[in-house]
Structure prediction request, 66 residues.
Amino acid sequence: MKKIKVNKDACIGCGMCQSICEEVFQIGDDGFAEVIVDEIPENLEEEVMDALESCPTEAIVDNDEK
Ligand code: SF4
Prediction:
């Protein structure tokens, strides 16, 4: 199962990830994106990878690769 996180130092709060997959990404009270699930459900993996690749600052990082 995939795990990801948002690097808040890199996030600019553009909202792109949330618009691609709001089940996983939400803009928090601080104006930056956060991951609202522990593990990415299999049926959302594709959308999440889409969001990861679409993030303009590459703030979404794949936790599996660390
Ligand atoms: S797409 Fe990237 S920069 Fe934009 S809100 Fe999501 S994590 Fe932040």
